[in-house]
Each structure stands twice: as structure tokens, then as C-alpha cells.
Protein: Deacetylase sirtuin-type domain-containing protein
Amino acid sequence: MRISIPNIPLPSAKNPAFVNPLADISHTDAVQRVKRFLDQGRGKGLVLTGAGVSVDSGIRAYRGTEGHYTQNPNFRPIFYGELMDTGPKGDLYRIPDWARSFIGYVPVRKAVPNPTHMYIASLQRLGLAPTLITQNVDRLHHKASPYPLTETDRRTLELHGTLHYVHCPKNHHVLERDEWQKLLASLNPRWQEIVEETRGRPVKMNPDGDVDLGEVQYDQFVVPSCGECEKNGIKGSIVKPNVVFFGETITEEVKDRSHKMIDDASSVLAMGTSLATYSAFRLIKQAVDAKKPVLILSTGPTRADGLPGVDKIEMRAGPVLEDVLQLYLNGRQGPAYDHVRHLMTKGVIKEAPQSRTPPPEASSAGS
Structure:
């Protein structure tokens, strides 16, 4: 079966350029339009986010404003079938992927929410958009949440999983990523040294925690099998991050929950996403088919451009949401409003590296 990387349909002779009727909207009008959209949701709005929301936390988006992969036009991610191949061919894909992720996960784990995360958390706290579906695997929405973990999990669906856990698909054993990192560090002391050497250095990283190390030899990197499987005499089991890889389908549980969240929502506000993956795009289509208002607040092309029933404001979400929230806060007092004022001061902006900065001596890591 041939699996292709999802891309955004860009203008061509058969696909004429999308003419956005809101292309020339001013910032002030955009703020007013988003506020009316949230008011229209009557406290049952849903927010759908993508990688663009986490860029200001130092995590690079896959695609730039033109819809192409930002790091390399020839970029090719690892596919699920390659990751799960139990033979030597699978090792050629899986071992480098874990080695890069071993280093790349550290800055993801340390990343903190940026202002946009806090503004979205504020929308939840004010009851304007109580529920959230995110395509991001960095858990930054969880870190920004104004609620305890149990309530956050109830309100938030990580559509493509999270990097903060790993599991063995054979018996669904789940392990916290920090424990897995410790195991990898004990088996790969030279690579742990590289992690220490890269502290404070900008490392070019993708949203899935895969770091760009350039020309590196990976053959000496050790990736253990599932400890639970070994205890039960099962050899050669494979451990993977709790994220959805290219070519992998989301679970029925996640799919059903995502559909129910759209059914229960009165409107959908999508931010920082190209909607290139069908798992996200079909949620927009579901909302449109149900005649629910849909507004995209994002830069660059999206898969939903020109879709009847979808409005699009091509602006960065953060500055617009900040001013929208100020309209709701103006002159209002009370615990929820005071909490939101506090939340809005907490976001931190960190610029994502734009050029590859390989770890020192990375090229000798496998020697």
C-alpha cells in the first residue's frame, strides 16, 4: 500500500487560487469578528489547534506560510509501518528515530506555554470555548490549563497523542516518557553526554520532538524492547511514543470522542493549523455538514480554504485573542476574570531555531 505525506492543495490550473473575502480585514475588525463568533457559540464553542500555536514556545511547525515543510522541501518523516517493522529494515528507521527523539524530547519537556496557549486557556476559564482538540503532542495546553489534570483531560483531546508517554502496542503497556528517557540514557551514555552538552544551545526540532542532527552515525544507539514483554517471554517487542505516526490511524476511542466533541459543540474555532491531516480536516467537515459556524484564525494555506461554511482570518492567533479577551475583561470583576488576568501574564515567548545547530561532536556519537 502506498502512503503519501498529507499536503495542502495549493493553487494550480485545476485548483484556482482561493480568494479569501476576509483577506483585507483589519486587526480591529478581526478582533470584533472573533468576539462575535465566540458570543455566537453561547458557551459551547470548541477550539481546534495545530503546530502553529506552539511556535512561540520554541517548537517549530512542520509547514510554513506557503504550506510546504519548513525545514526541508524533501523532508520525509518515518512511517508507522517502518517504525513497527520487526526486521533489520525496521531497525534502520527505528533506531535513528529514537536517537534523535532522545535528544529532541528534552527541549519539548522543558518547553513552557506561550501567550497563545494562555489565551486559549482563558477562553476555557471564561466559558467561551470550554473544550479543546489539539493536534499537538507537546502537552503545552495541559501546562497552560486553568484546571486540575482530571478536568483538563475531560475538556482536552490530544488527537495525535502525546510525547510524554511511550507504550508497547503488543500489550499496550504504558510508561512515562521520563522513565523511558532514563533507560535510554543508561544504555547510551555517550548520547546522554550530548544531551548535557546541548543544554542552552538552539537545536532545530520538529513538533514531534524529532531533532535535526545532520550527518550522524546511529548504529551504536541501543533501543531496548518492552520490559513487560520480556518478563512474559515475548521477544522483539517494539516500544513507540504515544503519538500517531504517518500511516497510522487514530484509535477508535479517540476518533469517537473527537466526533462527539464536535457534535456537542456549537461552533469551531481553528487556530495555528493547516488542517493537512485528514483526522483534523474531517472534524471541520463534520462541523460544516452539521451547519455549525467554523472560523479559522491562522496564517498560510489550509486544507479547508474555500470550503463552503468556513470563514478564515489570515492572522496570527495570539495578538487577536489578546485583544478579544481584553474586551471581555473590560470593567468586569470576579474570580474568573481575575484568574484570566493572571493567566494572560504567564505566557513566555521563545524563538524557534531557524538554522540547524548540531550538538557538539554529534557526528562521532555512534563511534
The longest helix spans residues 88-110. DSSP finds 13 helices and nine strands in the chain. The first strand starts at residue 45 and ends at 49.
